[in-house]
Amino acid sequence: MMTLIETITVGSGGAASIEFTGIPQDGKDLVCLISVRSTGSSSFTTRFNSDSGSNYSTRKLGVDDTTVVSSSRTSQAQFDQNDIISATSNTFASMQIYISNYASSANKSVSIDKVTEENSSSSYSQIQAGSYSTSSAITSILFTHPFAEHSTASLYIIS
Amino acid sequence: MATPTYDLLESVTLATSATSVTFSSIDQSYGDLVLVCNLGANNANGLSAGVRVNDSTTDYSFVLMRNSGSSTQGIGGTAGYFKFFNSAGNTSSKALHNMNFFDYSSTDKHKSVLARHNVDGTAVSAVAYRWANTNAITKLDVMTNSSSYEFAAGSTINLYGVAK
To answer: How many CB atoms lie within 10 A of CB A159?
Structure first.
């Protein structure tokens, strides 16, 4: 079963963060669906349990406009997403973050898909393999970014 | 409250290492299937693995894009099963495989599958598969390609049905 836990919608004036806390521990996996637009240039960051330790790693593959891009990062303090859009009016980036076995004591496997589109050469599509290397169950998720009004994040539990 | 449309059909957590996990007599009343595998392996260099349908060893094709290390790659080809690209993890990294089987119970079309394969922080790929067979999918074997390779204890494999 896929159950909506909470949807957070950014109100007038924007917000610097979106956070899900007290995540129930009775599921198998988590899915977070995000629609986001920026008011600034800071990257979109994801942290679990407010953990800023060097426990996050990613491998990326994507297309920036017409160029294939790839990268790898290890021992990071969070998952970072650049290239969130802000130019074209009413246009939002879309992202899915899938977290497997979030309540377990094993390292967490994370799958991230992201797309952005604008009326310019700055469009992006990206897939990422992530790892959150701790034994702690994930009880909270914190996104930081200069979120524009009407940005949304919905958290689902798969059980 | 809307009617639930995403049902867990079967869940397996390996208590000991194993070379395969089988889902048989799959409920035919759903529209699509979603298979989520979070796998460790007993081999430090990773292992080859995948999913076989209805015991069939033919008619599988794929096209993929991936970043598995020093370079990116786009390729297509055929195989004897739905191969997990980037391997199925190793002794230090788990792999997360999400596979969507579309219209799996139909008997009038070849089966399409979209998948994402990740090895934690080290490899990523997206794959489109086809099983060129009109039979309904009634059985899935998640398997390594060698009896000397095993999925590690603690690996989880979950099969979900998505309502029509």
So the answer is: 15
